[in-house]
């Protein structure tokens, strides 16, 4: 058992290491220090005219491609191992993390298969696959298998769906209202010769005011758009205050959900780990107890039931040794003893019930 736990720990560490390496190579591939620009000449046919054109192609350093290939091979082995040993294949393919695994490794194999083709359709598909390389960043979600905090965050987001929906609705209403208000407020005092007010304001229409309203309500304030009239400044102040109040309302509920799930996760980690109970083997063919009901029952019975049977046998044996039949009250007490032992499946209770029986010589035993 210890070897299995150690092997699982090594596999988890390897998976975590390859995830970090894959994400690092994904980021480094976009840096100009790891890319080389090549000029290629291609024949382009337009109608009946064929001419040569210079095409610029960006090629990533090969060692990054090799590192990514090793990571993809590891992830492929990991995915197929989980598919093979998963008892419920339907539930496996319903998991979002498993879908992410497939989506993240598929573009690499398609790109390798199409890289040797020279047809225009293959090049178009290859260009599309290079664009969708961003799905590799989804591997960051695989870290939730190894970090409790990320799992707690995921449970919190799922439990706070209603609060997030309420926040989005409030923000959408505020954005629509304040974008409309800033559009008309900036036209107060505009030059009559400029009906669009494009000379003194950047709010030329309501849709462009959506961006300003979102930035202002979330208190980001990039400064690329700002009101220039006193009426527009008043609308901007109201928009900022409304955004602070709107965002502050659902935040305490989300924080409470996070605290609750985090406390549960910490309490679960402190619980003692379950140990595999030793289950005695059933009698095998050729055994003296083979096919005997008592032997089969004892081999498959729980420890509590065995303890109850032992207590009952002790009382019965004592009564027979004293040559005194058990009374009805004593039989009831035996049943109660057995029930008391079975009521608590996680606690071993040794129940001792005193039975008195007077034999013919007037002696009592207990």
Quick recap:
The chain is mainly alpha-helical. It is 60% helix and 8% strand.
SSE diagram, text form:
Blueprint: H1 2-28, E1 35-46, E2 49-60, H2 62-85, H3 89-94, H4 96-114, H5 120-131, H6 148-159, H7 161-185, H8 206-217, H9 230-248, H10 251-270, H11 293-300, H12 303-321, H13 328-343, E3 357-358, E4 364-365
Antiparallel strand pairs: 1-2, 3-4
Helix pairs in contact: 1-2, 2-4, 4-5, 6-10, 7-8, 7-9, 12-13
Structure characterization notes:
The protein is mainly α. It has 3 domains: 2-146; 161-252, Orthogonal Bundle (Helix Hairpins); 293-365, no CATH class. The chain is 60% helix and 8% strand. The chain is built from 13 helices and 4 strands. The chain has helices at residues 2-28, 62-85, 89-94, 96-114, 120-131, 148-159, 161-185, 206-217, 230-248, 251-270, 293-300, 303-321, 328-343; strands spanning 35-46, 49-60, 357-358, 364-365. A two-stranded antiparallel sheet has the order 1-2. It has a two-stranded antiparallel ribbon with strand order 3-4. The longest helix is centred in the N-terminal third of the chain and has 27 residues, at 2-28. The protein is flat, with a radius of gyration of 37 Å. Mean pLDDT is 74; it is low at 314-323 and 329-366. It is found in: Membrane. Residues 12-263 form the Ion transport domain. It catalyses: K(+)(in) = K(+)(out). The chain crosses the membrane at residues 7-26, 63-85, 92-110, 164-185, 206-223, 235-264. One of its GO terms (molecular function) is delayed rectifier potassium channel activity.
Helicity level, as a percent range? Answer: 55-70%
Q: Shape, please? A: flat
Termini Cα gap: 45 Å
Please indicate the percent range of residues in DSSP E strands (runs of 2 or more).
5-15%
Overall mean pLDDT stands at 74
Radius of gyration: 37 Å
Low-confidence stretches: 314-323, 329-366
Largest sheet: 2 strands, antiparallel
């Amino acid at each position: 058992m210890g070897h299995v736990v150690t092997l699982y720990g090594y596999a988890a560490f390897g998976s975590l290491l390859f995830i970090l390496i894959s994400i690092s190579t994904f980021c480094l591939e976009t840096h100009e220090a790891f890319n080389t620009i090549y000029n290629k000449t291609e024949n382009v046919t337009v109608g009946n005219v064929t001419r040569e054109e210079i095409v610029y192609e960006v090629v990533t350093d090969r060692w990054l491609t090799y590192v990514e290939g090793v990571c993809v091979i590891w992830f492929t082995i990991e995915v197929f191992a989980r598919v093979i040993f998963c008892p419920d294949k339907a539930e496996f393919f319903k998991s979002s993390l498993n879908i992410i695994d497939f989506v993240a490794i598929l573009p690499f194999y398609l790109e390798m298969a199409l890289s040797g083709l020279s047809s225009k359709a293959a090049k178009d598909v290859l260009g599309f696959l290079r664009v969708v390389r961003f799905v590799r960043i989804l591997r960051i979600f695989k870290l939730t298998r190894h970090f409790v905090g990320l799992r707690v965050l995921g449970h919190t987001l799922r439990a706070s769906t209603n609060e997030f929906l309420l926040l989005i609705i409030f923000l959408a209403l505020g954005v629509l209202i304040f974008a409309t208000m800033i559009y008309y407020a900036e036209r107060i005092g505009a030059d009559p010769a400029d009906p669009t007010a494009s000379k003194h304001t950047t709010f030329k229409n309501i849709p462009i005011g959506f961006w300003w309203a979102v930035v202002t309500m979330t208190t980001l304030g990039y400064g690329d758009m700002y009101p220039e009239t006193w009426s527009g400044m008043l609308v901007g102040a109201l928009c900022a205050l409304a955004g602070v109040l709107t965002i502050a309302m659902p935040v305490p509920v989300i924080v409470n959900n996070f605290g609750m799930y985090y406390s549960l996760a910490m309490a679960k980690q402190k619980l003692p780990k379950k140990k595999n109970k030793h289950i005695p083997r059933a009698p095998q063919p050729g055994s003296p107890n083979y096919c005997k009901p008592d032997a089969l029952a004892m081999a498959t019975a729980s420890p509590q039931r065995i303890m109850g049977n032992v207590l009952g046998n002790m009382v019965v044996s004592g009564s027979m040794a004293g040559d005194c039949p058990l009374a009805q009250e004593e039989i009831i007490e035996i049943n109660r003893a057995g029930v008391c032992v079975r009521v608590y499946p996680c606690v071993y209770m040794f129940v001792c019930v005193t039975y008195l029986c007077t034999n013919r010589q007037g002696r009592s035993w207990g």
